[in-house]
Write a structure and sequence with these properties.
- The chain is mainly alpha-helical.
- A hairpin with a 6-residue loop joins strand 7 and strand 8.
- Helix 22 packs across helix 24.
- The radius of gyration is 33 Å and the shape is elongated.
- It starts with 8 loop residues before the first helix and ends in an 11-residue tail after the last helix.
Length: 887
């Protein structure tokens, strides 16, 4: 045995290079669309695939994705898949970048990837290693959908310890599946001889035969034997002494391997076996030595069950079987050190930004207080990074009553339940957090209060409880609130993350409450802080909300500019299907429509309609229908406008737009001539609501439709004299325009001043669509011949009116008037496959009747009558990726 300070592990660990396996390499190279390499641990799956990629020169055309242990986060899997594909030559030109964010939908990511890969013409391999570790059923179904619908040039190679349910039996029947199994992977005796020869050992044929018989060609056993035999005085005795199952053989050989390693290497292997991955600095910390990176690199070069994880060969992991056995040996030899090692690892990982791993090691050390503090500190970063599934898995690692004893952990538990849609459970945990907040140590109390406040804000927002939202926002920004004590935290950026998140959310709430200047101030602060700490998603949200501010002021050109900035940021980061991006599309569509740029607006409103998921975010869906209805009125399509407003009404709930929505319903009904229905809407309101400015304006539009201009002026009087306010300043443009139209019908001299005032307001806000909704070209032409400061504006409006006859529906498919639900979208995504309705039901774990109900709804909403028509319509609407055959 070498002395403890030895730095020559390679001399002892020279277990040889890769044994050539040309027959298996050929099978992989000639394989059809999907290859499954399925065999138990230690069978050489990873080494085979890496050596094939190297031998075949596929390094630039093969994307390698290792699945982490017990991976339950679909977003993390798909980010890894996209990242790996972007590292290949074909993928770098096609696959768009995607940055982690909350609420990223794995199904949408899959559809986006299918769209990106449509132009693929050369072969590209996606290799997924350790697929058996994929614990998220949702991600498995998404992968199955990708396999079924990917272009034929994308080849899949799936390495797993056991068969994973992916519907591969269909591919087997079609001859599209290549299977390499344990018997194929076992070394022949000639390959075993090559392995020992590469390790510098020329074994006698009887000894080799005995080892081969004992291991049955099991690759890990032969490799461990090669490591153990290096320098062994009696190879024959060694070969005769072990037998039994793979596990017992491995344990015996591992003991032999460890016994023969230098003390430095043995100590490193044992102490770092607690880690999911290790680098040189972390290895040095856990061993108290130096030179850990060199040792790890030598171990990898010796094929000693160590695999590098990055091109720089700075991060490594141990073969899972090897790690399990090392951990067993560590518990046997140094049981008192295991807890301290986990605590050391947690501290190092925290300091280097590996939050989730740090929490896991604190849990492994059973230091529940440390684990809870770490998770509470890092929850904003995990949430903003789209790692809700990781947070849920970490919460599951605590004892059942831990949340009751720790207020910060209870607040995180509430956020976790909220992310999973369990609002009652979230409220219960928030109650625990509030009751326990007094027990939080003084040094952490401020941050805990802000964390609790932010989660309460999210809950109130999701419930649509606007008074509670406003109250919580006020509490968070009160002069003595802890929010403002987080900024000076010099130790870390944790306080900054939480503060930026809170500022952006407060800005959003203040926008809806009409406190626009305060909202903009908070959003600017939040966005600046987000840029400084590298949180582009918060910056993106801030831009979306600032665009909404400009829409509410209103100043439509700046609303359009802010929306375009937000959309550009979304496209750079791959967030084009995010709910916040949908808000940007709607705001841009609305801003363009109000400027009279209806064709441009239509495209963005359509895009918003394709992105909305009504059941997941009914408030956003309601806003989408609201904007669509306004656009349709501007187009002169009153029936379509009424249908959109009715759809918005069904989704409204306690939405801030619910009140003005009723005014828009009256407008649409009046335009259609359905005056009795419009009167019923007005009659159904309480006196206070009927006297609101926007309802008086709507009533005036109705009176004009009933040919009663005098009654219109009576309705408008409190609005135009300023005694009754309006919730949105742009309503005043309509009020004075209707006043001018009514006065003109009465041959009243007040016509000119009223129209001039409407033009004043319209020019300052660029609000031209009112003149399209209430066209009065003759009145405008007469006014232009008088002294007016708005001759240019009148000319612009007349040009718009000249080209704005009531438009027929645009050619081609339009977004469904009622958005498809999340369940309907999932069924839709299976329609391009060859699966029948019962098979789709099996994939989605629902009944065939449920699938058929969803299909009927999809057909009705898309206005089609068959599966093929539904697929064609969905592709035209960008709900499905184009067909690779239609390139």
């Amino acid at each position: 045995m070498r002395p403890a300070g030895s730095t020559e592990p390679a001399a002892r660990l020279g277990a040889g290079g890769v044994v050539p396996r040309p027959a298996l390499w050929d099978r992989l190279g000639e394989a059809t669309r999907v290859t499954v390499v399925s065999a138990p641990a230690g069978s050489g799956k990873t080494v085979l695939l890496r050596s094939w990629i190297s031998e075949a020169g596929l390094a630039q055309r093969a994307a390698w994705v290792p699945v982490g242990r017990d991976e339950r986060d679909p977003q993390r899997l798909w980010l890894a898949v996209l990242g790996a594909l972007r590292q290949t030559v074909p993928g770098s030109a096609m696959v768009r970048e995607l940055t982690a964010a909350p609420d990223l939908d794995g199904w949408a990511i899959t559809e986006r990837l299918l769209t990106d890969l449509v132009p693929l013409e050369e072969l590209l391999w996606l290799v997924i290693d350790d697929l058996h570790e994929l614990g998220a059923d949702e991600a498995r179904r998404q992968l199955e959908l990708l396999v079924m619908r990917a272009p034929p040039q994308l080849r899949f190679v799936l390495a797993t310890r056991h068969d994973v349910r992916l519907g591969l039996h269909r591919l087997r029947l079609e001859g599209e599946l290549t299977e390499i199994r344990a018997d194929d992977l076992r070394f022949s005796q000639a390959e075993a001889r090559a392995l020992f020869a590469a390790a510098g050992m020329g074994l006698a044929e009887p000894t080799l035969g005995m080892l081969y018989e004992r291991t049955e060609g099991w690759v890990a056993g032969l490799r461990l034997a090669a490591l153990s035999l290096a320098g062994h005085p009696d190879p024959e005795r060694f070969a005769a002494e072990f037998s039994g199952t793979e596990r017992t053989v491995a344990e015996y050989l591992l003991a032999e391997v460890l016994e023969r390693q230098p003390a430095q290497v043995r100590r490193l292997l044992l102490r770092t076996s607690i880690l999911e991955r290790v680098n040189g600095e972390l290895a040095d910390l856990l061993t108290g030595a130096s030179g850990g990176e060199r040792v790890l690199q030598d171990l990898e070069e010796a094929n000693a069950f160590v695999v590098s994880l990055d091109p720089a060969r700075s991060w490594f992991r141990y073969h899972h079987l090897f790690a399990d056995l090392l951990q067993l040996e560590l518990r046997h030899t140094e049981p008192a050190e295991v807890t301290a090692l986990h605590e050391l690892a947690a501290t190092w990982l925290t300091g280097h930004g590996y939050q989730a791993e740090a929490v896991r090691h604190a849990q492994s050390a059973r230091d529940w207080g440390l684990a809870a503090r770490l998770l509470a500190d890092h929850w904003p970063g995990l949430y903003l990074g789209g790692q809700e599934a990781t947070v849920h898995a970490l919460m599951a690692g605590f004892p059942a009553r831990a949340s009751a004893a720790d207020a910060e952990l209870a607040a995180v538990a509430a956020a976790d339940e909220l992310a999973r849609g369990s609002l009652q459970a979230a409220e219960r945990y928030l109650g625990l957090a509030e009751r326990g907040s007094a027990r939080v140590p003084e040094g952490r109390r401020g941050q805990a209060q802000v964390l609790l406040g932010v989660v309460q804000l999210l809950l109130a927002r999701q419930r649509g409880n606007l008074p509670a939202v406003a109250e919580q926002a006020q509490r968070l920004q009160a002069p003595d609130a802890a929010l403002y004590d987080l900024a000076p935290t010099a130790r870390t950026s944790l306080g900054d993350e939480l503060r930026a998140f809170a500022l952006v959310k407060i800005g959003d709430i203040e926008t809806w409450a009409g406190r626009l200047d305060q909202a903009e101030s908070h959003l600017e602060q939040g966005a600046a802080l987000a840029r400084r700490i590298g949180r582009p998603y918060l910056e993106f949200m801030g831009l979306v909300y600032r665009a909404e501010i400009e829409l509410n002021r209103p100043f439509f050109p700046r609303a359009a500019e802010r929306s375009r900035q937000a959309i550009d940021l979304a496209e750079r980061n791959g967030w084009t299907d995010d709910p916040a991006a949908c808000g940007a599309y709607m705001t841009l569509g609305a801003a363009l429509a109000w400027q009279g740029r209806l064709d441009e607006a239509e495209a963005w409103v359509q895009r918003a309609g394709r992105t909305i998921r009504a059941e997941a975010n009914p408030a956003v869906a309601m806003g989408g229908q609201y904007v669509r209805g306004q656009l349709e009125l501007g187009r002169g399509r009153a029936a379509e406008a009424l249908a959109a407003f009715r759809a918005a009404e069904r989704l409204a709930g306690p939405h801030p737009l619910a009140r003005p929505l009723r005014a828009w319903l009256v407008h649409a009904l009046a335009r259609l001539g359905e005056t009795e229905d419009a009167e019923q809407v007005l009659a159904g309101l309480g006196e206070r609501d009927r006297d609101r400015g926007e309802m008086r304006i709507a009533a005036a539009a109705l009176r004009l439709a009933q040919d009663d201009p005098h009654a219109a002026t009576v309705a408008l009087a409190p609005v135009v004299d300023g005694s009754t306010g309006v919730g949105w300043r742009s309503w005043l443009v309509e009020a004075f325009l209707l006043e001018a139209i009514a006065r003109d019908a009465l041959s009243d001299q007040a016509t000119g001043p009223a129209l001039e005032r409407a033009l004043d307001l319209a020019e300052s806000d660029s609000a031209l669509m009112w003149f399209l909704m209430h066209p009065a070209p003759g009145l405008l032409e007469r006014h232009a011949r008088q002294r007016t400061a708005h001759a240019v504006l009148i000319g612009q409006i007349l040009d718009l009116l000249g080209g704005n006859r009531p438009a027929p529906p645009p050619a081609g498919p339009r977004a469904p008037l009622e958005p498809l639900t999340k369940s309907e979208i999932r069924v839709l995504r299976y329609l391009p496959t060859y699966l029948s309705a019962p098979e789709i039901a099996s994939e989605l774990s629902v009944s065939t009747t449920t699938v058929k109900t969803h299909l009927r709804n999809v057909y009705a909403k898309l206005g089609v009558h068959s599966r093929a028509e539904a697929v064609a319509s969905a592709r035209a609407l960008d709900l499905l990726a184009p067909s690779a055959h239609e390139r």
